[in-house]
What we know:
Bound molecules: alpha-D-galactopyranose
CATH architecture of the largest domain: 2-Layer Sandwich
Strand content: 25-35%
Number of strands: 12
CATH class of the largest domain: Alpha Beta
CATH topology of the largest domain: Ribosomal Protein S5, domain 2
Largest sheet: 8 strands, mixed
Number of helices: 9
Shape: globular
Number of domains: 2
Distance between the termini: 6 Å
Amino acid sequence: xxxxxxxxxxxxxxxxxxxxxxxxVMPMAIDRYTEIKGTRGGDRVRLTSFDEPEPVDLPLEIDxxxxxxxxWAKYVAGVVAELxxxxxxxxxxxxxxxxxxxxxxxxALQVAVAMALGHRGGIIxxxxxxQRAENRSSGVPTGIMDQLTxxxxxxxxxxxxxxxALTVQxxxxxxxxxxxxxxxxxxxxxxxxxxxxxxxCAAAEALIGPLRTAxxxxxxxxxxxxxxxxxxxxxxxxxxxxxxxxxxxxxxLVEAGRLVKDGHESLRLLYAxxxxxxxxxxxxxNATPGVYGARMTGGxxxxxxxxxxxxxxxxxxxxxxxxxxxxVVES
Length: 331
Ligand code: GLA
C-alpha cells in the first residue's frame, strides 16, 4: 500500500510548562509540515531523509529506542517500540519545519511515523502513544501538548487543550491577528533543566495537591522559594490561558497581547526557562509598533519566540497560519 503522511509543526501561543501537571495550553498547528511518502510491507522500517546523511533501518521489535543509530533513528524507534507494527515500511521523509528550533519537528516526525506504520486508534490514542514514544526516545519527561496539537489541529483555530481531561476546544483566530515566529537559537531539551522543572512541580504537588486545581493563595503559601515560584507560574499560567481564550473571543487583541507579555515575564522570572537572547528578542518585539505581545514559546532554553501582531508589521520571522492536524492518504 502506498502511503503519504502530512504532520504539521506547532507553535504555542500561551500556556507553557503547564501540560505535564494536567493544566491548560493554547497552541495551534502551523502550516509547516513533515511528510513521509512510501510503502507498507516487509519486516523492517527503512527511511531516508533529505536532512540526514544516514538512513534509518530498524527491525519491528525494539526494546531500547534511546540507543539506536543514527541519532534521528531514535525518534522512529520510539514509535516502533510503542506501536508494535505488524508490517514494516520503506519511505522518505522531508520537512519544512525548522529542525531543533522548538517548533516540534521531532514530534511531527513521530506522529507521521505512527501514521505511516498504520496507527489505527483515535486522535487521543495517537497523541498518547507518540508522547510515550518521545519520552522513551529522548529520556525527557515531556507532556502531551505538542503531539495532541499536531494530531488535533483545526484550520483557522488555536486549540484550548485541557491536558488533564484531554479535551480540545478549537478557538477561532481573529482575521486581523497575525502570528509571527522568530527563531532565536537551536536547542534540545535533552540535558536541559526541563526534567528538573517536572520534578519541582511534582514536589510542589506533594505539598499542596494537584497544580491543575491549586489556587494562587496555595502556591504563595509554599515555604521553599523555588517550589513556590514554580507553583505560582503554573497556577497563574492556567488562569492566563482562560483569560486569553476569552480575550480572543471578545476580539480584545490588546488584552490578549498583555497576557502573552505577562506569560513571558512569568517564564523568565518564576520558571527560569527563558534565556537572555530570548528576552532580548521578546523585548525588541514588544517595543515594535503594531505588536500586541510577544513571548518565548514551548520548552525554552532556546528555540523560538512568538509575536501576536497587526497584519504586516514585522519583516523578520515566519508568518504562520493555523492548520488542520496530521493526515494520511493511502492508495
Ligand atoms: C515542550 C514539551 C511540551 C511542553 C512544552 C512547554 O514543548 O514537549 O510537552 O511541556 O515544552 O510548555
